[in-house]
Specification:
Layout: H1 7-19, H2 24-31, H3 35-48, E1 51-56, E2 66-71, E3 76-83, E4 87-93, E5 99-106, H4 114-133, E6 138-146, E7 149-151, E8 156-160, E9 165-168, H5 170-178, E10 184-188, H6 189-203, E11 211-214, E12 222-226, E13 229-231, H7 262-265, H8 267-277, H9 281-284, H10 291-303, H11 307-331, E14 335-338, H12 341-344, H13 346-360, E15 371-373, H14 380-394
Helix pairs in contact: 1-14, 2-3, 4-5, 6-14, 8-10, 8-11, 11-13
């Protein structure tokens, strides 16, 4: 069923995405609707296959089971795709975020041939969706994640250093490669990962009204949640915190300046310095084939007690904490979350990062955990991209099914 979209139905979907499951009275109260107004909207969404009634144990452990409303997990799917220089990742999820399938492809990257990489990406997604299609689900949308400066409104990569791309109309390219059958949206990896982190925190019963997610994949980007919503800035380019200057007389950066946070705490910088300082040179080996392999080597060396690597990771953690404090001073979030590969290196980086963070804050706060490590894995941008596709539908960008 398509046509004019009921604003009440969209508001209900958004509430369930962010805060479900809920009872009918809780849902109506949250939206300012009477019971008489709530029921027709709920019934319409149930008929469309978007909302379902689920039973749960009695609240407080007594009485009858409680009937709750939540997103229907049986009829539809949303997909996320991450395009990188080393690999493309595709994931398919139910409306409640349950993973249905993941697919990963290693790619031979050619910066001069975006279409070649898009073909790999489309193939990875098709392989995932073919399996899901056997369950009879309908795909509602695809989110595409890329590291770099992204104009989400036009679907254009303004600048992706890891890919060597400038002004690439990626959303149109993915839609074409995918056949144009479903809506496609585009954003950077930190923004999508922040959405996934926000949902996970809500599920864990933690505050999620404001947070900053620092990506640890290629360069350092920030996904910013404020007022419970993703904030992209006036031109959609907010969050490029890797180019905050933390060491004015420091190392040269790819942006042409010196002392950017990226030069001290990005994954490429951490890997280069860590392997250079490795005590066990023969174990460090030749230059790693990409970020993931480089992090694998650092983890192995640090776990083996290599003093040079451990010291390099602690030093990088200190710089990261200083950079995170700058971000916190500007945005004053509830929490700064270290994600991506930072989570893998957390055993060696977190303590010095927190110490530097607390020292650098103008007014250290004591009423919340200031710097945390994400519980999500490296697939967070993919999960968040799929979630963004669902949110886009609930914001009325496309007709409801």
């Amino acid at each position: 069923m398509t046509g004019e979209i009921d604003p009440g139905a969209l508001a209900m979907l958004r509430r369930l995405i962010g805060h479900g499951p809920l009872t009918r009275p809780e849902l109506g109260t949250a939206l300012g609707l009477s019971r008489a107004s709530t029921s027709p909207i709920v019934n319409d969404l149930v008929r469309r296959g978007l909302v379902a009634e689920v039973s749960t144990a009695p609240r407080g452990g007594r009485g009858r089971p409680v009937a709750l409303l939540d997103l229907d997990d049986e009829n539809f799917a949303v997909a996320g795709l991450e395009i990188g220089s080393e690999r493309v990742l595709a994931g398919v999820y139910t409306l409640r975020g349950r993973l249905l399938l993941r697919n990963e492809r290693t790619v031979e990257f050619d910066a001069a041939n975006p279409r070649g990489l898009l073909r790999h990406a489309a193939a990875a997604l098709h392989e995932a969706l073919d399996t899901v299609g056997q369950e009879g689900r309908r795909l509602l949308g695809v989110g595409v994640s890329v590291g770099g400066l992204v104009d989400a409104t036009s679907g254009t990569i303004k600048y992706a250093p890891i890919l060597g791309w400038r002004d690439v109309a990626l959303r149109a390219g993915v839609a074409e490669a995918f056949g144009g059958g479903v809506p496609v949206l585009l954003d950077n990896d930190a923004n999508f990962a922040a959405l996934a982190e926000q949902r996970q925190r809500r599920r864990d019963g933690l505050a999620a009204t404001s947070l900053v997610y620092l990506s640890g994949t290629y360069g350092i980007s920030a996904g910013i949640i404020t007022g419970e919503r993703l904030w992209r800035g006036e031109r959609g380019l907010a969050g490029e915190v890797g180019h905050l200057i933390v060491d004015p007389d420091g190392r040269a950066c790819v942006c042409g300046r010196r002392g950017c946070l990226d030069t001290r705490a990005s994954m490429s910088a951490i890997i280069a310095v860590g392997l250079e300082r490795a005590t066990a040179k023969r174990r460090a080996g030749v230059e790693p084939d990409g970020v993931a392999e480089g992090v694998d080597r650092l983890v192995a060396l640090a776990q083996a007690g290599d003093d040079g690597v451990v010291d390099a990771l602690r030093e990088a953690g200190t710089w990261l904490g200083r950079g995170a404090a700058l971000v916190a001073a500007i945005l004053d979030p509830r929490v700064v979350v270290l994600g991506g590969h930072y989570a893998r290196l957390a055993p060696w980086m977190t303590e010095p990062a927190r110490e530097a963070f607390r020292t650098a804050l103008l007014m250290p706060a004591s009423d919340y955990d200031e710097l945390e490590v994400s519980g999500l894995d490296a697939w967070a941008p993919v999960e968040g991209a799929a979630l963004a596709a669902l949110i886009s539908m609930a914001e009325g960008v496309q007709a409801l099914p």
